Amino acid sequence: MAEFMTETKQWPAGPPGTGEPPMPAVRPRPAREGGPLLDGDGNEATAVLDRARASVDPELRAAVDSLPGAMRRIARYHFGWEHADGTPAAGNAGKAIRPALVLTAAAALGGPGARRAALRAAAAVELVHNFTLLHDDVMDRDTSRRHRPTAWTVFGVSDAILAGNALQALALRLLAEGPNPASRAAVTRLADCVAELCEGQHADTTMEERAADEVTLDEVLVMAEAKTGALLGCACALGGLYAGAGEEEVAALDRFGRQAGLAFQLIDDVIGIWGDPDRTGKPAGADLAARKKSLPVVAALTSGTAAATELAELYGRPYDEKDLERTALAVERAGGRDWAQVQAADRMSRAMQELARAVPDPEAAGGLLALAEFVTRRSS
Amino acid sequence: MAEFMTETKQWPAGPPGTGEPPMPAVRPRPAREGGPLLDGDGNEATAVLDRARASVDPELRAAVDSLPGAMRRIARYHFGWEHADGTPAAGNAGKAIRPALVLTAAAALGGPGARRAALRAAAAVELVHNFTLLHDDVMDRDTSRRHRPTAWTVFGVSDAILAGNALQALALRLLAEGPNPASRAAVTRLADCVAELCEGQHADTTMEERAADEVTLDEVLVMAEAKTGALLGCACALGGLYAGAGEEEVAALDRFGRQAGLAFQLIDDVIGIWGDPDRTGKPAGADLAARKKSLPVVAALTSGTAAATELAELYGRPYDEKDLERTALAVERAGGRDWAQVQAADRMSRAMQELARAVPDPEAAGGLLALAEFVTRRSS
């Protein structure tokens, strides 16, 4: 999830390796519900995201402004609304993918009224996302986020943790306070999601400390679903809940978000090895250099091939740049790259099936489809 | 709050220094609502606490058992239900002061039915308390809690933080899910309390990094109220909410808990300087040795006396055991000890006024009175 969370990366033009889209392209279609005019495939998601950001920001700012002084200051810095000294900043609060999923799912099932009703859920999900970013940056010792120093490097570790805690409280409070009959079920889902995110982060950090050959593919998939899929699924489910959708639809929306999240993670992991440094903004093979147990790597390591043995041996050594090409080749020859790409396509196809179950009208499902495409193969 | 939170300390027989009780003693009275028989002043609070622990534990255990695997394991260790290897432990989950305040406040205003209804609120407050303990131990680098190694020393810093996060989510979920019409207001209060606890912990950690003469008495009082008073106040208020009490009564209960919490902190700070090592289990003058900016110290430093100047000079030096007696004497001569004792008595008297406002019937208020006495002058 770390890569997705940084939200600063440039993406390659198509899905890695294949040149084939993993799912049907979205056709241009007329704007609905007073939404922005769309000018083609690539821009639909951007328009949806921009509109979500514009809708959710006032709600988010009002929530953050209700915090006590120090917590508010750290949160406002983290969201990019203020500099460290408290002066206003231009603001880059991220791409608003989760709020967009909430609002788009609500609109798909309940129209503009449901979209409005779901605004507080969109803000709550974004608060939880940012609470995990504040904490993950501490745990992963990441020093940069959205092109700025991370909060813990500016305010210290304790303050970044405390501000994250305050954002979690704010998120669940926002949901619980709403007049919507879905409030109670929404709190349950979001609180369970927080627990799953924590379990996922735990799995991620402990996995990185274990020997490469001790990690199973199932473990990494469960971890990726918890860290990446759970909150995307929860966002979609909350949108459904606020639209008054039934249990079946809500559960299908959750699975849609989870599968799309897994597809994203698989592709992100492929890019982490074979991505073009000019586009990713990271050195080639960064994940291999960091000995990351990413999905293609673990798939390769557990393939039982001769290349797996070679890869395990390479991963057991300290990083040496001259081995990089050979390491990437070993992952590829052990089938790690193909496996990840087939899995990603499979996950997207499952996501589409769940989406059709939750929102049978393809016209109404268009926004969610565009967002799923966006997170798995951004063209900009 | 750290001292209160450790819940391992032995307390002196009476309020420090004066030999006078800061508030009227509680008289033995017949048990109500099927409660335990009471055998005198000192044991009433213990009986209330034991009963609260017995009532809240099944609720707590069920909640914790709903967490995903690793989060559950860390939480079960932290609560003392399991050893680090997952085998059952005798269990010392603390004195259950906060759950007891919730349940006793509910019973005082709504009888046994309200007490039962408030069980999930009691569990929620205890979950929040333990979430802050997990995090505070990390931030304060405390290695021991309830006579066992702290969770972060066993599972690592990240896991202790993550488990704390999961407990917060669980707490707010428990409240939101309940069928009680008070649920929504209860979530708001508990979430706001979490934000205040975080702000208080922030103030505490940053204050310790500042020069002693930069800290004002007001700042320390606000910090102590946020760290110690807020959750005690919230516990009482939640009890009132679940008993269907009106806004006035609930607000008075909150103020009662806050004032009692401040009285506790003042007395705890006095003990931290002049407490008997045999009873406190800590070396004499431990807080002075650690250069803690406790309430009596800051009162002394800001007194404008000659002793204040001497104290500031001593606090500016690295700790040297031979200066300990002189430092304690400087706090005393600058009026820090007297101030803290007068303040503590004043806070307890304010607490009593608020209690009378919230629960006018002295018989019904007895349990809360006993708990307030207990936290400010334990005789066992």
From TrEMBL, chains A, B:
Which InterPro entries did the record assign?
Isoprenoid_synthase_dom_sf, Polyprenyl_synt, Polyprenyl_synt_CS
Locate the region Disordered: 1-43
Q: Which GO terms describe its biological process?
A: isoprenoid biosynthetic process
Give the keywords, sorted.
Answer: Magnesium, Metal-binding, Transferase
Example GO molecular function:
metal ion binding
The record, for PROSITE patterns, names:
POLYPRENYL_SYNTHASE_1
* Record SUPFAM superfamilies: Terpenoid synthases (SSF48576)
Q: Where is the composition biased (Pro residues)?
A: 13-27
Enumerate the Pfam families for this protein.
polyprenyl_synt
Family membership noted in the UniProt record: Belongs to the FPP/GGPP synthase family.
Q: NCBIfam families recorded for this chain?
A: f2_encap_cargo4 (NF041169)
The protein in question is named Polyprenyl synthetase
